[in-house]
Specification:
Order of helices and strands: HHHEEEHEE
Mean pLDDT: 78
CATH superfamily of the largest domain: Ribosomal protein S6/Translation elongation factor EF1B
Number of helices: 4
Distance between the termini: 131 Å
Strand content: 15-25%
Number of domains: 2
Length: about 210
């Protein structure tokens, strides 16, 4: 077959030799097939890939929610327990009317422990989320066991009382044997935000 003798005019394709016709048809089919894949099938493959990824995400989300649903009752029980404990703590907070009485109870606990008060200064209330923190700066003098008795007595009060920033040092170079000075901040709490009243606390030594 002499290719130079073939008339390559597309309009004369009917006169081309059979092998040339077959090759041309094959090339056209390949081009059409490739164009179909590029313009149609590729978009479908991308959509399929996105659907498979979405399916995986939905499966993971379902498994996570299923695990949560299995433990839902446990979470509800824990929430109910937390709410009960919170209610108990709120009930242990003094009302605004009870704050003055509680401050006297704190000072009386120190005096009953045998301590001498040199400072008893309620500070301004500090507002928190749903309660007020009532700090009281104290300075007391006494023996180590009396200080321990005082802290233990505060923990036994019917209302919530906590002790912070404790600093205990010997009471002077020439102080009585065993005498210690404790500076601390005692805190109690209530649901109000008003100023805490100040009790009449005299600087005196408690009776033993």
């Amino acid at each position: 077959m002499n290719l130079s003798e073939i008339n390559w005019d597309p309009n004369e394709a009917g006169t081309w030799p059979l092998p040339i016709k077959a090759a041309t048809i094959g090339i056209i089919c390949v081009l059409v097939f490739g164009a179909g894949i590029y313009f149609d099938t590729m978009d479908q493959l991308k959509a399929l890939e996105a659907s498979e990824k979405k399916e995986l995400e939905l499966k993971q989300s379902f498994e996570t929610k299923q695990k949560k649903s299995i433990t839902l009752q446990d979470y509800q029980d824990q929430l109910a327990q937390i709410e009960t404990e919170l209610d108990d703590m709120i009930r242990q907070m003094p009302t605004q009317e009870e704050v003055a009485s509680l401050l006297i109870d704190i000072s009386q606990t120190g005096l009953a422990s045998g301590l001498e008060f040199r400072l008893f200064k309620p500070g301004a209330p500090v507002r928190k989320d749903f309660y007020s923190e009532l700090p009281i700066s104290i300075e007391v003098i006494g023996k180590y066991e009396e200080l321990g008795l005082f802290v233990s007595g505060l923990a036994s009060l019917p209302r919530i009382v906590t002790v912070h920033d404790v600093n205990i040092i010997p009471e002077g170079k020439d102080g009585k044997a065993g005498e210690m000075k404790m500076n601390a901040t005692v805190k109690t709490y209530n649901e109000g935000s008003g100023e805490a009243p100040t009790p009449d606390v005299k600087k005196k030594r408690g009776k033993k």
